[in-house]
Amino acid sequence: MFDLKGYGPELAEGALVTVELAFFSLALAIVLGLLGASAKLSGNRFLAGFASTYTTLVRGVPDLVMMLLFYYGGQVGVNMLSDYLWEAYDIDFFFQFDPFISGIVTIGLIFGAYMTETFRGAFLAVETGQIEAARAYGFTRWHTFRRVMIPQMLRHALPGIGNNWQVLLKTTALVSIIGLTDMVRVAEEAAKAERMPFHFFIPVAAVYLILTAASELFIKWLDKRAHAGVVQGN
Amino acid sequence: MPEFIVEWLNQNDIFTAMTLMEYWDGLVTTVQLVFLSLVIGLVVAVPLAILRTVKNPFVSGPIWLYTYLFRGTPLLIQLYIIYYGVAQIPGIQDTFWWTIFREPFYPALLAFTLNTAAYTTEIIRGAIVATPHGEIEAAKAYGMNWAMRIRRIILPSAARRAVQAYANEVIFMLHASAIASVVTIVDLTGAARNIYSRFYAPFDAFIFVALCYMALTFMLVFAFRKLENHLLRHQRPVSS
Q: What biological process terms from GO does the record include (chain B) (predicted)?
């Protein structure tokens, strides 16, 4: 292999940070997506309006701008809150906004909006007969949701989740801009110090390629499993 | 200027005429960067997409590799490689290329163009592959050769199928262009970052710029909806 000038361990740690960040963001995005999709389909005008505002806002603003807003704005917001608490109640409260949390919150919020659309489409693709059958068996709304809608919806949602995951994985690179020491940041510092940009960025690009390629295979496998009981074609 | 705008401008410290000019310059840079990379990217992508559907693996293989590499890695890495990388090419600092690539605008333009061309190639390829076979058979029956089939049948038909996905790509590119601020380009986001660090006012600086991007996004969405309606007007249900 080639020589990473002693940055190898740091790069490996950075890669781990990238993967952790991606997984936590995905978890948040899935939760938000399920909530958003349920809100949009709930029939409650207030909830549906709230969810549409959320998805529209997110799709209009660049991810980097949102990340900067949360990272810098989050800290100022916390400072204002702690000032207020100290003045009003003598409570000493302080919270340091770190880039890892800001990254998860921002990426989770952004992809939560995309997941909302994915899940909404997937819920709509579940046959109404299935829901009627569940109701006929005396399932409650929650039971129908958990036992009938979710398992059947997942099959339709899987390609969408897969696409979102691939984009999300690449979006994590942005968190290096607000100072998280992920592998992009380590590579950038190493490249500047050693004046060898190709030497450090190409391995990082290769790690991203490996991650996206591995995810592609995994999603294909999941998709096959999810379609196990489905007779396709004619 | 109307009286109340003058008054409002006089009353706040951040949105003075000077900072608004900075935002305006940033907007111009963002629009230039995005527009140029999209136009060049599209011009490059159309022939690549056609060649990507050719059966010969020596023609389609390299194009597949190109799109795979650029779609599988983050744009930020591509930007860093090009931005930091060009300066390292031996001897470049003595050629006239250096006068161009010393400006961060051009490495960024190159990175964005290569990235959007890769995505657009795949979008157009998908649309070409989905051409109904009957259309091609009919074109053959009329005696059209390959080039004429591409020009008169396949591309117009593919354009209709591609427009929606391409609209998403355009909006994606507009949003992705925010990373140009990382390599010292003062685009919209760069202007916001400068103003943030001068006044330490994150909400004013970034919410304003978010609204600018939102306005641009919705203008694009509107324009593409018009275009889509125009291209797909033959499919509109006949109404009274």
A: amino acid transport
User: What is the value of ipTM here, to two decimals?
Assistant: 0.86
pLDDT 10s digit of each residue in chain B, 240 long? Answer: 677 777 766 666 777 778 888 889 999 999 999 999 999 999 999 999 999 988 889 989 999 999 999 999 999 999 999 988 887 777 777 777 777 777 888 889 999 999 999 999 999 999 999 999 999 999 999 999 999 999 999 999 999 989 989 999 999 999 999 999 998 888 889 988 888 888 888 888 889 899 999 999 999 999 999 998 888 888 777 765
- The nearest alpha carbon in chain B to A62 belongs to B175
Q: Does A142 touch chain B (CB under 8 A)?
A: no
Contact flag B178-A202 (C-beta cutoff 8 Å): no
Interchain proximity A202–B80, CB inside 8 Å: no
Instruction: Give residues with Cβ within 8 angstroms of B61, minimum separation 6.
Output: none
pTM > 0.90: yes or no: no
Is residue A144 situated within a structural domain? Answer: yes
Token reading at B94: 């003595």
* Cβ-defined contact of B77 to A173 (cutoff 8 Å): yes
Query: Class for domain B25-231, per CATH?
Result: mainly alpha
Q: What residue in B sits closest to A73 (Cα-Cα)?
A: B202
Q: Which domain holds residue A137?
A: 17-226
Option in B73, B177, B210 nearest A61 (CB): B210
Tokens of residue A89, six digits: 């109640």
User: Which CATH number fits the domain that encloses residue A136?
Assistant: 1.10.3720.10
Considering only CA atoms, which of B77, B176, B63, B97 is closest in space to residue A184? Answer: B77
